[in-house]
Structures are given as structure tokens and as C-alpha cells.
Amino acid sequence: MSNASMVFIFTLAVLALGTSPVYGEPIEIILLTNSVDYALAQDSIDSMKNNGFEVTRVEAADFDAYKTRQFIVILGGPDAPEGIGNIVQQHLSSSEQEHLRVSGSREMYLKAYQSQRVFVIAGSDRAQTQLAHVENMDSLYEQVTAADTAAESPPITPPSPLPTGSKTIYAGEYVESISYWGYTKSGGYTTVKIQGKYQKLEVGRSIQGNTTIHQYEPYPLAYITFKDSELPIKFRLDDVEYEILYYNNEKVIVKKL
Q1: Would the pLDDT of 187 be above 90?
Q2: Total Cβ atoms within 10 A of residue 129
Q3: Most C-beta atoms within 10 A of its C-beta, which of 111, 206, 209, 255?
């Protein structure tokens, strides 16, 4: 793969769109909900399907057959009717349950187990529960896709010993005038955002010649898309070539070439 195909300069909007599954089999979401919350969730359910997820609606009475699936979304709080509340209470702490009973409250809780993610989306009443899933759809897509990709990707380890000149960058920390600022995952691929520290400055004079004009260009950005198995991978930022040696969603080990 050439350097040009590995480095993409995108807008932030394009990166944000990269969170839905686009490769391989659709990700199944088990949607556990009572009849009232299900009726109020049709727009969110349509949104899940439109983003490539396979949604299976389940009632509490049938939940035992689905309770070990990888991704479960529960709509409703600890007091939700039709048996939903009893299941919610198995996943939320006492303080989380009490918070949802406060008028006007709404939350999405993610419970991460060894091979399963359970999302509890709820509010203090049915209206707040509806607002909770509308507000958290984008976050739900991102977290489900990231977890699915992580489950499929083989574990990688940092090179040992690190090559001379390698640096470890944590999010927001500048090293060698570059910083790692975030990531998204989609269909087995990871896209990381790398940003340069310095702006380019152009100095000019006004037409009248008596005013100095300072014009700054935006901080240089690079979005690098790769599979974990493709590392190390080279990229260029602000006329300098770098190589990503290792990446784990929290830090980047990078070498200036």
C-alpha cells in the first residue's frame, strides 16, 4: 500500500461518519424493551437499521434465550414495567438506579463484561427515556462498532525494544511537534487524527504599506487509516515523514524518519 493511499486528509464531518459498520456481516443488537418504550423508539430503531445494524427486539419473558449475546441495549429504568426493570436492576448499581428515579434525569450506562456490552438507556419517565436514546444514538454506534472491531482484531504489542528515536504520544500531548487527538473505528479499520503543533505564518503589508498583516494557516492535520495488522505505517505531516509503530486507542508510538 502506497503512502498516498494510507494518508487521507478529511474534514471532521467525514471522520464522524466513519463509525457505522460498513464491512462484513452486520452487527446484531438485541433490543430489550417493554411495549411502551418500544413504541416510542421507532425513530431510533430505524436509525440503527439505517446505519447497518441488525436489530432484534426481545421482551423480558424471552430474554433468557438472548442474554449472552454480544450487544444488548435495554430501554427503560429500574422500575420499567413488563419485567424490564428487574433485568435493569441486575446491571445498574444502587446509586445509578436512584439517579434514574430523580425527576428529569436520563442517562446511557455502558456495562462492559468480558465478551459482552450491555447498554442501559433510561430516564425518570417514558419521555425522558425517549430523549435518552435519541441523544445517545451516535455514542451507541461508535461504542458498539469499536467493541466489535476490537473483538475481531488480534492483540498487538509494542515493539521491544523500541527503535531509536521512537516516542510515545498520549492524546493531547505534543511530541516532536505532533499530537494524537482521537480515533474512530469502522469495519476493521482504525482512523487516527494526528495534528501538528505549529501554524504557518505569512507576514504581509497592507495596500497602503503602513500596516503589517499576520495571516495564520490552520494547524496541519492528517487522518491515517489502517488495520492493526498493517503496522508499522508511514505518514507525512507538514513536510516531515513519520512512522506509527504501535497504537492502542490511548497512545501512539511514533518515530520521526
Answers
A1: no
A2: 25
A3: 255
